[in-house]
Amino acid sequence: LVLLDNRGRRWKRVITDGVYRLSWWGPDKVGIIDCAQKVRDWFTAFTAAGMNGHAEAGRYRCDTAIFLDLGRVQQGTRMTGAGMYATIFDVRTVATSPQWLFYASGGSPSAPAEANYWHFSDFGISGNIGSSGISVQWGTDNISDAINSATIQNVWMANSNTAKSATAVGVRYNNTVRCNFTNIVNACGTEILTKTVTGAANNGSGKVR
């Protein structure tokens, strides 16, 4: 297997366990140098290959928003870290909202795109939202996507800002269907947003259509 970094340099990796490791993209692990693009490249690579992604212990600073399209892998896959407080994606310097988004592209409110059977575990996302905005978000606001039957366990999602504001949201959940959230740590405010979907129906499989 040949991998390319963001400069087009080539090197070979022999993958025997079906896991793409974030360290292969050479990110800074101590939270000093921005590695947002390396995180995106890692995610794109393991989903395109239909493999699993693992981020080793470290603090990965991301200075621009991270949007991860879960719909790239319809059969589902795994995104894991070394522990809830051992692997941290640090988006505290991101100026836009949401700072981190899990979603599925290509759908509409009446026919949502699907992201099925994902597994997320053992990492943290550290955001910083003050007066207004969202740190971590699952699904788009217009619910044009559906995150179906995902397992999310031992995940820390935090808004580290200490200012009290009714419009600052630590975690927002949109259109998460039959997901199993276990040992989730939500720091600061959490929202579960519900909307009426015109023309959508449950086809019996648990997927919103």
Structure write-up:
- With 209 residues, the chain is mainly beta.
- The protein is 6% helix and 41% strand.
- The chain is built from 1 helix and 19 strands.
- It has one helix spanning 36-48; strands spanning 2-4, 10-12, 19-21, 52-55, 58-61, 66-69, 78-81, 87-90, 100-103, 113-116, 119-127, 132-138, 145-148, 151-159, 167-174, 176-177, 180-182, 185-187, 190-193.
- The longest helix has 13 residues, at 36-48.
- The chain starts with a strand and ends in a 16-residue tail after the last strand.
- Mean pLDDT is 84; it is low at 199-209.
What key attributes describe this structure?
5-stranded parallel sheet, 9-stranded parallel sheet, disordered C terminus, 6% helix, 209 residues, globular, 19 strands, mainly beta, 1 helix, single chain
Number of strands: 19
The biggest sheet amounts to: 9 strands, parallel
Task: Tell me the β content.
Answer: 35-45%
**Cα-based radius of gyration, to the nearest Å:** 17 Å
| Count of alpha and pi helical runs | 1
- Tell me the series of helices and strands, N- to C-terminal: EEEHEEEEEEEEEEEEEEEE
First-residue to last-residue Cα separation? 37 Å
Estimated helix fraction: under 10%
Shape: globular
User: Runs with pLDDT <50, length 5+?
Assistant: 199-209
Arithmetic mean pLDDT = 84
Q: Structural class per helix/strand content?
A: mainly beta
